[in-house]
Amino acid sequence: MADYEFDFGLLKELTETSGVPGYEDRVRDVVRRELEAHVDEVRTDAMGNVVGTVEGDSEYSVAVAAHMDEIGFMVRHVTDEGFVQLDALGGWDARVLKAQRVRIHTEDGDVTGVIGSPPPHTLSEEQREKTDEVKDVYVDVGLDGEAAKETVDVGDLVTMEQTTVEMGEHVTGKALDDRVCLFAMLAAAERIEDPDVTVHFAATVQEEVGLRGATALGFDIDPDLAVALDVTVANDVPGFEAGDHVTALGDGTAIKLKDGSVITNPKVHRRLRDVAESEGIAYQHEILPAGGTDTAGFQKTHGAKPVGAISVPTRYLHTVTESAHVADVDATIDLLTAFLDSETGEHDYTL
Fold first, then answer.
1. CA torsion sign, 97 to 98 to 103 to 105?
2. Binding site annotation covers 318?
3. Where is this region: Disordered (predicted)?
């Protein structure tokens, strides 16, 4: 069994709980429950962002953000034959959806469905060569047309059905993006007791559809410093050159230098590096060529603000087999905690 210090049971609960963009209700309940035990105040805004605040000894404030939403779908049509068609919420590669089980969240309860895949030997050459798209996906719910339309409504939410398990030295399942970082944030909130600065632990919404929750929240709480947590690409698998790995599992938490949406403040990422080295925490640098995170959401609102980001290296992003190394999860929690513990509000992040 892998050696790690974190609460796997809570990580499993967070990743297996549903919460697509704009409908993060179920996972939000878990987050509120966990924050209320460790912070001075918990509040939720009109978009659904949750903020747990630990009051510090100064007026200087730090926002730590991790998003609650997972990529999923909304029902757009139920055919006369009883098959359900979907509209994507977030960035899906339709190739990974074949032969997967899903959960449709209806007003009367959850309904299981499958995205079927016809036997390959029955496909024509044209069907074999066709590019997969989400709009062409059909969910089989095992009902005839009339019963299906009575059970499933347009607008119902759909998530992938998958459990989170230990696999060697890794954890694997759905929605590690970004529940593993949400978990790391909650773990840090549990450890922080008497900070010099006020810390806002923010669980944000609608990141997967445009960083919407963080952008609004950055305006509302107006922090002096923001640190976002998200997963990052680990293409350390066969088929990729070393220079394209971005990060590698087991090499430590990742300190972001840039992604497709943000260039982090050099003084912030250098201080993250210095804290990691002084505490003996394994780390690696992250240069992500595409994709965005809540880091940019905080940087773009309410004036120029210093931002940094810590990432959990993760293989197979935006699939149901996302995988992270347990040591990297521990390192992420350790670095975030040490960084917040050492933040006095007196560091000069201006350039």
1. positive
2. yes
3. 109-131
Full residue range of the structural domain in which residue 316 is found: 8-70+174-341
Q: Is residue 67 annotated as involved in ligand binding? A: yes
Residue 133 has a CB neighbour count (10 Å cut-off) of 11
Same domain, 98 and 118: yes
Domain assignment present for residue 165? The answer is no
Residue 166 is among the residues annotated as catalytic for this protein: no
Strands 253-258 and 72-78: unpaired
| Residue 341, marked binder | no
Residue 65: give its domain's CATH number.
Answer: 3.40.630.10
Position 348 in a domain: no
Q: Edge-to-edge strands of the sheet including 165-167? A: 165-167, 170-173, 322-325
**Which one is catalytic: 24, 34, 70, 207?**
207
Together in a domain, 138 and 253: no
Q: What is the pLDDT along the chain (351 residues), one digit of tens a residue?
A: 578 889 999 999 999 999 999 999 999 999 999 999 999 999 999 999 999 999 999 999 999 999 999 999 999 999 999 999 999 999 999 889 999 999 999 999 999 999 987 787 787 887 777 788 898 899 999 999 999 999 999 999 999 999 999 999 999 999 999 999 999 999 999 999 899 999 999 999 999 999 999 989 888 899 999 999 999 999 999 999 999 999 999 999 999 999 999 999 999 999 999 999 999 999 999 999 998 889 888 887 767 889 999 999 999 999 999 999 999 999 999 999 999 999 999 999 999
200 marked as binding residue: no
Structural domain count of the chain: 2
- Asked if residue 237 belongs to a domain, the reply is yes
Tokens of 5: 């210090």
Consult the annotation and say whether 3 binds a ligand.
Answer: no
Is 145 found in the same domain as 42? Answer: no
